[in-house]
Every structure is written in C-alpha cells, then in structure tokens.
Protein 1
Amino acid sequence: MKNIVTARAHTNIALIKYWGKTDIALNIPTTSSLSMTLEPFYTTTSVEFTDNESDSLILNSAMEDSSRVSKFLEMMRGQYGNFPKVMIQSENHVPTAAGLASSASSFAALTAAMFGLLDLEKDDSEMSRIARRGSGSASRSIFGNFAVWNKGENHQSSFAESFYNKDIGLSMIVAEISSEKKKMSSTKGMQLAQTAPTYGAWVEKSAIQLAEMKQAILQADIEKVGLIAQDNALGMHEQNRLCLEPFDYFTSETQRVVDFTKECYKAGLLAFVTIDAGPNVKIITDHATEKILLTKLKAEFPELTFDIARAGGAYEYL
Ligand code: ADP
Ligand code: DP6
Ligand code: CO
C-alpha cells in the first residue's frame, strides 16, 4: 500500500442543475443533471494514514474544520471496512464555497485519493457513487467533458457517467463577482428551495430540458445548449425567491451581468448565462466568440475579474 496518494479533479458546471434531494443523507437528487468539467479550476488532494486521534484537513495550507470530510471518511469506513485516521492536505485552485463548485472538485479529488490509498478498484461508477456521498455535484467531476448524473432512487442506482467525451467548442467565461464564502451553503439552499410551490413544475421541466440538452450537445449546437441552460438555471434561482424562507444568491452586479449578456445575445453574439449557488456568473459561448465577448465584458465591467474556461479532463493521479 502506498504511504501517500495525490489526486486531482476539476470542477464542473451544470448545464442542467441538481437543486434538491429526495434523500438528504444519501444525496439522492430530485433531478438528473448534466455538466461540463472545467479545465482551469481544480482541487489537488493528498491523503495519508496517521496515528492521530482524528481525521484532519489542511486546506490551502491552513487547518480547517474537518467535520464534513470526517463524516465522508466514516461513510467510507462503513462501506469498505475500518481504516486508520487520515490526514488530508488539499489545494483549491478555485474559490472555496463561492458558487464555483469547490465541493465538486474537492470531493471528487478526495474520493480518487482515498481509492488509491485503500487500493480499491478504480471503477468510475463506484467512484462516482462515493464522491456523490461527499457532495452531489462531485459525482460528475470524476469525468472529463460532459457528464450526466442519472438521479436513480437509491445509493446503488445514483451515479454519473461520461455523456460525451469530446470538446464541442463550448466555452464558459467566469465572471468573478465575489470569491467570498457564501452565507447559504448549497446543501441548505436546495433544501429550502424545495418548499417553493413551483418546485414540482421546475423538476418536471428539467427532465424535458435534459433530453433536449443531450440532443443539442450531440449536434454541437451551442445556441441551443445556451438557451436551455439559461432557462434551467434562471428557473432554479426562481425557486429560491419563491420558497417559504426566500433567499437570493444574486447581487445587483449578478443581475447586471445577466442583463448585459442578454443584450449581447440580442446583438447577435452567442452569449447565455448559468449561475450556481453564489453570485458569480458563467457566460456560455463558443471558442470562436470567447475573445470578442471577453473584450466587451471587460469594457462594461472593469471592476470584475474574468476567466475563460474550456472543457477539462477526468480525475487523475499525480
Ligand atoms: P461550492 O459552491 O464551492 O461548491 P458548497 O457550499 O457546495 O460550495 O461547498 C463548500 C464546502 O465544500 C466547503 O465549506 C467545505 O466544507 C467543502 N470543501 C471545499 N473545498 C474543499 C477541499 N479542498 N477539501 C475538503 N472540503 C472542501
Ligand atoms: C447549484 O453538490 O454543492 O451547483 O450535494 O449538498 O454538497 P451538496 O450540494 P452541491 O450542489 C450543487 C448545486 C449547483 C448545481 C449543480 O452543480 O448541479
Ligand atoms: Co457545491
């Protein structure tokens, strides 16, 4: 057995969102979801056994609260047999808890690292199931390019798979409005959103949108991808505003970027938005348009930071 194992996984951004659970303990979602893995944003995680009394987490060189990772490791001990305490060292090349999917890249990287440390068979479906237990969106970060997480109905049937392992020319421009830690975690936010009277309708529509999205990706039809993704994401945020304890991840700056992107589309550019559990906006476009659009965005929002992200690869060992 190796002494220390290091793995890397990239974040992914959902084009069809996961936003609600039928089983909170197991992270079984109310909808199937589809994402693109992003090349420039990732987590690198090393694990080793320790004689310490508890699991520990060092994140970006600082000691962190280890309760979430420890709960995850306890789940793994239940699945694969007891093993010693683990020391985790992790680097996020993505803002933590800001709606840029750090939980996806980090639990996918931790899963891969633990599979290496425990010498488990590197079965993609099994790794996806285990990553899902840490954070639902992590189930998709095992894979490169496009992944679909079929919602399933229990632990065994709920896992992601590669949908289309090709670059269809899609680009995302990430508008970093704030890299501050969010007040409302994704876990809590989606639980509240499920109390919206319109939530059932959003879930139903999502199944239709998923089928259309798969078609659009296979046809490399970026306009169709963008239109569906935008509608699905804005619908998700509507649930937050309509639920019993309303909340909103948008800031006024978020809304301004959304409005400006819609104007760019009206003016003839491929430009659409998707937004996760945070204020940051991802602008969907294609490789041919990304630079023109970036120039326009920088001119309109000189105070913001923008990064161009293209599709990234599957998890890997370093
Ligand atoms: P995000 O939008 O970044 O995915 P979430 O609310 O879904 O935000 O998850 C953020 C949480 O994920 C953090 O508070 C922390 O518990 C966990 N996390 C993020 N990065 C790491 C890491 N590298 N190692 C362990 N846990 C992490
Ligand atoms: C808006 O996977 O972070 O990014 O399973 O509770 O850890 P937990 O939630 P998380 O939720 C992600 C929500 C989203 C949409 C998505 O990635 O599909
Ligand atoms: Co998350």
Note: The CA atoms of residues 43 and 106 lie 5 Å apart.
Protein 2
Amino acid sequence: MKRRFAGSVLAERLARGSGKQVLLVDRRAHIGGNAYDHYDNAGILVHQYGPHIFHTNSKDIFDYLSHFTEWRQYQHKVLASVDGQLVPIPINLDTINKLYGLNLTSFQVEEFLASRAEKREHIRTSEDVVISKVGKELYEKFFRGYTRKQWGLDPSELDAQVTARVPTRTNRDDRYFSDTYQAMPKFGFTRMFASILDHPNIKVLLNTDYREVKEMIPYRQIIYTGPVDEFFDYRFGKLPYRCLEFKHETHNVPIFQPVAVVNYPNDCAFTRVTEFKHLTGQEHPKTSIVYEFPQAEGDPYYPIPRAENAEIYKKYQALAEATQGVRFVGRLATYRYYNMDQVVAQALTVFSQIAGLDRSNATDLKYEPGLTPLTISMSLNGNGNGNGHRNGNGHGHKGIRGRRRRGPLIPS
Ligand code: UDP
C-alpha cells in the first residue's frame, strides 16, 4: 500500500471488512497523505498540505467515515480579492453588486450575466465553461489569472471539468460547496486516519518507499496509490502533475482574514491563503495561515486534465489493468482530479471487487471499537486472511463468500 485517503480506506476495508493482513507503506513520515493535519509550534491545528474540506452528496460515504470520526459542521466560504475588494466566489448576486456598485435582484443579475455570457456551441475547455456563463470580463477577473497560476496553463488549454467545479449563482448563497454533507473531522483528519487504521491486521511503515521493502515481504497484492507513471518507470513518458509549495505562517492576532480561504486571481504569486481556525473552530489568541504557490516540479498534487495527458494516461491505464496483483487507486494512480469523497468511493469500489461483494455492501461491516488484538503477530500483506475465528473484527462474516480460512495465520 501507499499513502493517501485511498490507501487508508482500502487498508481498513481489507483488514476489517475481509480479514486480510495489510502493510501500509508511505514515503512520508506520517499517515493521512495530503489530508494530514497537525498542531504547529503555536499549538494551532493546521493542514500541512493546504486546506482539506470534506463534502459529499453520498450518505453512504458520509456514514462510512462517521464510523471513524465525529464531525464539526462547517460550511466552507471563500472570498476572492478582485479590484481591491474581497467578494464572494463562486460568483453570486453579492459578488456582482459589490464589484459594480449595483443593487440588482436575483432576476436582474440573471439578465446581467446573460447579457455578458458568450454562447459557445461546444463546451470543451475551462475557458468555454466560464465565458459561456458570465462573459469575458468576469472570466478575466476571477478565472483566467488564477487558472494560469494554478495550472501553468491557460483555461483554454484545460478540460472543462476544471473550472466547472466552481458554479455561478444568482442568489446570495455564498457557500463554496452545495453538497448535502459538509463537515470537518472534529479532532482533525490525522485523528480520523489513525482511527481508520486502528486495526490489529494493519501495520504501518512510514519513511519508506515501498520499493525498498517490496522484495523483503511476501505479499499477495499491492494497492498502489502513487503516480501511475512512476510505478512503470515512466515507460510512456512523464505524466504531468501540478505541484504545490506551501508557506506556513503564524500571526500574533486572533483573526487574519474574514473567511477560511481568500483567493488571489490576479495579484501575488500565490493562489490562495487559508486560515485554519475558520475550518477547525479552534480558539487561540494567535492564528496560522498557509500560502499556496503552484509549481511545475515537486511532490505531485493534481493530475492535469487535458486531452494530451489523457492520451498518455490511457497507455498507463491499459498497462495497469494488465498488471496482475496490483490495484491502482486514488488521484495520482488513476490520474483523476477527484475530491476526497470520490476517492473514498473509488476505494470502496475496488474493495468490493477484491472481496467479491456487491458495491452496495462494501461498507456493510459494522465498526466495532475496542477490537481484541490478534494473538498471532503477522504483518504481511493480504494472504487471504486465515486468522479464522480471531479475525479482529468479530463479525466479518457477512458477504465474504467463503473467503475465510480457518486456523492459524500462515505467511504466504
Ligand atoms: N478557479 C479560478 N478562480 C477561483 C477559484 C477556482 O480560476 O477563484 C479555477 C481554477 O482553475 C481552479 C479550479 O477552478 O484550479 C478549481 O477550483 P477548486 O477551488 O475546486 O480547486 P482545488 O481546491 O481543487 O485546488
């Protein structure tokens, strides 16, 4: 296994859901991948790799994660710094009124936008998405500069899905997401991951590239969540990923900015500034923030959605599908610009395939805190379980279809 949301969810499902022995290997010094959060030197909970906000429309996914954390209800708000003002993004009624000093109603703002929107026959690129909804001027104020910074490409060079993530509204709704479930893990993401991985069948090996230990450890299957091109030694060339650098700061004031995130579409080298206390609800006399500086090189964060990259990925995908004993899961391994909930869904689908379950039963096994530790110590990756009656969850029988072997655990 390798890092990130996908790896942790699969580790949990394979261990608790079908009694497999799992070794999770990560190059980094911590669990949780990019969603890792921790208390900084000032004692403020910060997200090391930029803001992570959980949101989903899937009750199934929300319920599944709720086994591992309590939640803090949180509606994410973002402002954009445009023409010397902070205005709501997604663009809404208040954005237009504030920006142009108007007092339009919802109906009037709809007309206002319609009069500026430029009809596009086909919505292919990220430029088409925005210009066809709000016209060139607002596109340039809010999207063009931000996107060029974030991706190192013009919106016209990116698939529609990138800017289509951000809606346009004519009402006063100023939430960044409109999903049914929006929340932050009450004690942070790292605590949630620790709980997900808290199972006697799961061992975690940090500060380790899986290739360093691959030959030393017998295993049945690898779940790989790193960049797919790296796995195949860049056989078909490098798949472009966008990278980020972070600058963390603590300020000696209780509040730095009015909302959790402020976007800077047209000025500054960074794209956005996040103030964590808005996300976490923590009270503290100081406050910590992070600036995000997009980069071409470094640790990969985003696949870059555009046709020519999809072409390269297709080759890797075919190779991945033909590679026995390895499953590729997550943003980097499947080259998809997925949100956290989509990654969890993908991981659950892969789990259901491995376990021979219907997808609707993938989260079926109830979580039971306070598990009895295994009496046999064994930390190798999935050998079809074999730990029989002491399977570590005490109720792992549902839907497993005779995969369980009885008797002591035998290294494969
Ligand atoms: N975007 C933009 N201006 C904004 C917000 C978003 O141009 O103020 C574009 C940009 O291309 C960005 C994409 O919309 O990469 C998706 O935004 P989102 O906030 O979902 O990005 P993420 O949080 O995944 O980095």
Note: The longest helix spans residues 126-151.
